[in-house]
Amino acid sequence: MYYKKNYNIYLITGLFNVTNAMIFTTYFLYLTSELHLSYAMATLLDLPLFVTQLFVELPSGFFADKFGLKKSVIIGTISLAITPLIFWFSTNYFILLCSGIFYGVGFAFISGAFDALAYETFETELKKFITIRKLLQNGVHIIVPVITVWASQLLGLHIFYLFDFLFKCLILIVLIIGVEDVKKVYEVPKFGLEFIRTGFASVYYQIRRSKAIFYQANAQFLWGITSFAIDVFWIKLIALSAGYNNVGIVFALASIFAIAGNLIAYRLKIIKKAFWLTFLIHSLFVVFAGVFIGDKLAIICILGRSIFLNIHEVLSSIIINKMIKTYRAAMLSFFSFLSGIGRIIGTLFIGIIADHYGVGSVWILAGLILLIITWQLYQVQKAME
């Protein structure tokens, strides 16, 4: 049963990666090319998602720790499946705006719970699991974007929302019949909403007693702003620098470089120091990608960024898991909550900056904020030592 459980968590991870890569490749291009929305209108579509996530994130983490990690992931997946259906049936801007509420609920219920479920399951071989999970993600990103870009020219961008819904249904089936929940460790009174008060208390206690968690929390907030900016304009930067027809190829190359980063991270011994140094190098590549946008040098920066970000992400998961000892879903949801605040801030001005000053300026600004995050991560290392 243990090996079956391992296999199915990897399978779910792979399926999430497939559907995420497919929509990530087409989402912004669909809004700006087919629906002809401005950058500001397109980015504002994510605002209800982030606002909903903001309010649901913490209670969903507390719910997962109290009532079961698997139950939380199932609820989240059902909610995620509603959003692509809305995109499939409607192009009305107001309806698409409201659809973000379902995605926000789904993301909130999954964000802390699925990682906690995986960490608890693979606790004795965590580094191996994190590396394989990242390899799965990047392996999918080698193939799926290329197929998606090719298929979009035959089928249109709209059809991928139907595919997204079908993948979410498949994930739900595997979750229900193929994954065992982790035995509950944290018992709180069963009446009322006491689990919320207990969850808040656990988060507050861990922040107060750990400087490392405090600095990581600061980094998560700033990462919300920058990750939104980079995610939204990632495909646009590639399209401007290499042409739309080469988006899938560049995406695949970036994923190959990312796999190299994952393998390097698996072999690294100086985890704490490399944890922030790799993020620093990644930040510099982001700045120069914005400077060289429209030129082939921007693609080189994209590939360099991919290596060092993926080294950092493996090491970051290990560091965060070492910092958090109890109420794991609640604490991971709190980090996601802080990122959500940052993403809300990002939606309010990132699109406006891109409309007035260009996509490159967004990347340069994001890179400068990433340098501030690097300082916070350095403080995390010092606190842990």
Walk me through the structure:
The chain is mainly α and 385 residues long. It has a single domain, classed as Growth Hormone, Chain: A, CATH 1.20.1250. 86% of the residues lie in helices and 0% in strands. It is built from 14 helices and no strands. Helix 3 (47-67) runs antiparallel to helix 13.
Q: Which ranges are low-confidence, i.e. pLDDT below 50, for 5 or more consecutive residues?
A: none
CATH superfamily placement: MFS general substrate transporter like domains
Query: Which fold name is given in CATH as the topology?
Result: Growth Hormone, Chain: A
Structural shape: globular
**CATH C-level:** Mainly Alpha
Query: Main beta sheet, described?
Result: none
The N- and C-terminal alpha carbons lie at a distance of 38 Å
What is the helix/strand order? HHHHHHHHHHHHHH
Number of domains: 1
Question: What's the CATH architecture name?
Answer: Up-down Bundle
Q: What proportion of the residues is helical, as a percent range?
A: over 70%
Count all strands and give the number: 0
How much of the sequence lies in strands comes to under 5%
